[in-house]
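TASK: fixed-backbone design
INPUT:
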């Protein structure tokens, strides 16, 4: 759930992040009448997977991004079809529509809507492949990242071919993850404080 982080500037070039706008500026201690930068809401980077059709989705393997995630934690990745149905691969094999754990994930749109039909065709074909049975799962060599990487390889869309899982992480996931980590940092700083000051 979006905690509603706000940002404004009053007396300096420093940004003030908060959940409610204070009457008095935390920097200059003056009553706030005007702003150098009007208050605005920081975009919430997490989505419910079922509302993100035709996307790649990422979440922590354990817990949630806001409350539990640490940069060294493992991530889990899945694919959402054009109807919001989720496909993921783990030690239980290929799982379809176990959406309860995907309510606050990072969603990455990688193709235009004109590709929806083909996207779904590739996913449906992969569900028939015995390769994605639980017996074949290995946390290091045959995991959720292999499933998504093979899906993207078969999709054969522009710039979505990756040499390995690390290459896919660096090019596809890290840019979105960095954005999420900035938000998580703000959230954690505001958990026990009324405001957070940043340059």
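OUTPUT:
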């Amino acid at each position: 759930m979006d905690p509603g982080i706000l940002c404004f500037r009053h007396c300096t070039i420093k940004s003030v992040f908060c959940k409610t706008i204070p009457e008095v500026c935390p920097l200059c201690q003056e009553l706030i009448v005007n702003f150098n930068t009007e208050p605005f809401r920081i975009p919430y980077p997490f989505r419910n997977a079922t509302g993100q059709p035709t996307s790649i989705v990422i979440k922590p393997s354990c817990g949630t991004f806001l409350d539990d995630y640490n940069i060294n934690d493992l991530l889990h990745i899945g694919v959402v079809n054009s109807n919001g149905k989720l496909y993921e691969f783990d030690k239980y094999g290929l799982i379809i529509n176990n959406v309860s754990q995907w309510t606050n994930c990072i969603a990455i749109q990688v193709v235009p809507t004109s590709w929806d039909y083909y996207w779904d065709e590739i996913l449906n074909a992969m569900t028939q492949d015995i390769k994605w049975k639980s017996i074949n799962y290995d946390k290091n060599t045959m995991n959720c990242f292999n499933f998504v990487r093979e899906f993207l390889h078969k999709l054969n869309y522009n710039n979505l071919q990756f040499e390995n899982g690390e290459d896919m992480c660096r090019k596809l996931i890290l840019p979105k993850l960095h954005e999420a980590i900035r938000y998580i940092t703000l959230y954690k700083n505001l958990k026990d404080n009324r405001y957070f000051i940043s340059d």
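COMMENT: The radius of gyration is 20 Å.
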